[in-house]
Amino acid sequence: MSDPKPEAGTKASQPDHKGHRQRLRERFRKNGEQSLADYELLEFLLFSALPRQDTKPIAKALLKRFGSFSAALAAPRARLKEITGLSDVSIDTLKAVHAAIARYHRAELDERRLLDSWSKVIAYLQASMEHADIEQFRILFLDKKNGLLADEIQQTGTVDHTPVYPREVIRRALELGATALILVHNHPSGDPAPSRADIEMTRKIVDIAKPLGIEVHDHVIVGLRNTVSFRSLRLI
């Protein structure tokens, strides 16, 4: 007679994740992040938040739902809660990692002349905004040496529109003593091509700013894995 199968819920029926986790950790320590696939790095991030769960199916579900590692980190909390197995604590972990990435890129801008570090500006804006599910209108306020005075989200809107009030933009610039601006907003659709409304709004801000000695250096639209510069398109 064959041995009886262990009942569900007994120790013998439970998968042993300890060995898998240890092997993944050792590979990461020995060979670095490049040795891990995207789902494995997501697994790794979830280890501490989900100590008793197999995080591999959760990681694979995240990539299937959101399409990429960066999109999974940037996904709204409400959508992350739809993934079976993710708790509030594990979602906190993913959101903290995303915030850390954005803050790292933001720190790269401090004490720099932004126009001399344009690739770092774009990296920061993409990390912060490319996966946002609603439009945000952001302004980088610069001093006379093009150093960063402030980085502020002025307005948030819907999936395809953000209300922007040009006089409020200039009022804030005067409050901060800014002499130049970089305007930024995102297109949740993923296509960064400027709309007619984008162009008209930008021109209004430029027209109000110029007599006051405030220059609009650029307006950047952040799409999915791409950005568009009004200056490069000769729209400013």
Describe this structure in words.
- The longest helix has 20 residues, at 88-107.
- The radius of gyration is 23 Å and the shape is elongated.
- It has two domains: 16-103; 114-229, Cytidine Deaminase, domain 2.
- Strands 2-1-3-4-5 form a five-stranded mixed sheet, sandwiched between helices.
- The termini are far apart.
- The model is unreliable at 1-14 (pLDDT under 50).
- Helix 6 (88-107) packs antiparallel against helix 7 (118-129).
- A hairpin with a 5-residue loop joins strand 1 and strand 2 (148-156).
- It is an alpha+beta fold.
- The chain is built from nine helices and five strands.
- It has helices spanning 18-31, 38-46, 56-66, 69-74, 77-80, 88-107, 118-129, 166-176, 196-209, and strands at 136-142, 148-156, 180-186, 215-222, 227-229.
Mean pLDDT: 86
Provide the CATH top-level class of the largest domain.
Alpha Beta
Shape annotation: elongated
Structural domain tally: 2
- What fraction of the residues are assigned to beta strands by DSSP? 5-15%
Q: Percent helix among the residues?
A: 40-55%
Say what the CATH topology of the largest domain is.
Cytidine Deaminase, domain 2
CATH homolog superfamily of the largest domain: Cytidine Deaminase, domain 2
| Largest sheet composition | 5 strands, mixed
In the predicted model, the low-confidence regions spanning at least 5 consecutive residues are 1-14
Radius of gyration: 23 Å
SSE string: HHHHHHHEEHEHEE
Report, as a whole number of angstroms, the end-to-end distance.
84 Å
Number of helices: 9
CATH architectural label of the largest domain: 3-Layer(aba) Sandwich
Spatial ordering of strands, largest sheet: 2-1-3-4-5
Number of strands: 5
Category from helices, strands and their pairing: alpha+beta
GO biological process, one term: proteolysis
Pfam family, one: RadC
Protein name: DNA repair protein RadC
Keywords: Hydrolase, Metal-binding, Metalloprotease, Protease, Zinc
